[in-house]
Amino acid sequence: MKKLIFGFIFWGALVSAQQVQRLTLSEAISHALEHKAEAEKARLDIRKGDAQIAEVRSNALPNLSFNSNTSYNPLLQETVLPGEMFGAPGQQVKVAFGQKWTSSNMVQLTQVLFNQSVFTGLKAARSTKEFYILNAALTEEQIIEKVANAYFQVYQAEQMLDNAKNNLAITTQTIKIIEGLYDAGLARKIDLDRTVVARNNVNSGVHQLENTLDLAENTLKFMIGMPMNQEIELPEQTFDPAVLPDRTVNFDDRTEIKLMDKQLELLQWQKKATIAEYYPTAALSANYGFLGQGENMPWWNGRENGVFWSDLASIGLNIRIPIFNGFATKSRVELNQIEIEKAEADLRETYLGLDLSHKNALVQLDNNMTMITTQEGNVDLAEQVLANTRSNYQHGLATLNDILDAERDLTEAKNNLTKAKLDYKLAEINLLKSQGKLRTLNENN
């Protein structure tokens, strides 16, 4: 009975794991943004930015510490003094200074009053967090692009498989026609054998495309962080191309540009932090504590045991004014400026690259739409040619080669149509990327 119960539990878990999940593009993207390591690490970087801000802010806050130092002096240092000091003229007297035990316990408070580097670093830390936020957004957009490409690759594999299955059905139908003609003595045995060979080749292609589909689905599952044993299916209607009404672009909205602007800002803050080395610094310090001295361990002894305690306190103002450091700061400022100019050059180059990508995406989109229209016409024409060729073959006006060629032409036309649709979708993704609107794939599907 226990084995039977465990068997039912295992069978139920297996059935649950094999349930097919219908996956839209929006759901695939959402799953990837939630489960992929890249997205998770980008979110952790945002938390890292908060920690960096807190770390820099701590330099501007009061610093309170407690220091305790207890030491035992088995041999006290002796100093030779004139005997007149002790009523022994003409003699030298050795005097030991200090006590066998000393214990110093001090509370210290320090507060920065002015330090330009600290103030500049705090502003730079806030910019660093903003940089991490933008970098997380860019990472998500890159994930969206990869998922969308993998998603439509699955569609292409599915469509290619359907085309191959349709071709197999067409070839099987041709075999039935030739079998009928052969039985009636109107076709040759070699024609029947050749169509059977053609069907076997098409059937082999079907199995290969089934493997291709499995590979494409596994790639998609990896891209979105889904277990490989999870079965998925994709809705058919989302593969149909749709002309995008809005083809305008504003490159300032691109996350890449915002990220580079923020990098440039960070470099400028770095330069300001270096310039801050020219500024003086001022800090306040205060100390209060107790000092214990005597022949015994001071911690638990007092005057009655030969240990004497006294308190002490001090307040100080520390001012540092830089005067000359061999032009080291000047050199670092120059290095910072060089990095800023290099970043500005990269920014200009990025603008040009984005403009090129946008123009190319528009051209590819229009070309692929034209190609889709052309291939749709080719598919219709190929179907008509195949039907006419079959009819002509039955009346002795066409050869078997004509039929096989017509079948291959129809399959090729369907595959070309499938590829044109995929190319259109990929061009559509490139256009959305060039417009900075990749997130609409997650919102509108």
UniProtKB/TrEMBL annotation:
Q: Which GO terms describe its cellular component?
A: cell outer membrane; efflux pump complex
Q: Which Pfam families match?
A: OEP
Molecular function (Gene Ontology), one example: efflux transmembrane transporter activity
Q: Which Gene3D superfamilies match?
A: Outer membrane efflux proteins (OEP) (1.20.1600.10)
Q: Is the Transport keyword given for this protein? A: yes
Cell membrane recorded as keyword: no
Which ranges of the sequence are coiled-coil? 403-430
* InterPro entries in the record: OMP_efflux, TolC-like
Instruction: Name where it's found.
Output: Cell outer membrane
Secretion signal: which residues? none
Entry keyword set: Cell outer membrane, Coiled coil, Membrane, Transmembrane, Transmembrane beta strand, Transport
The entry sums up its family as follows:
Belongs to the outer membrane factor (OMF) (TC 1.B.17) family.
The protein here is known as: TolC family protein
Q: Which organism is it from?
A: Chryseobacterium lacus
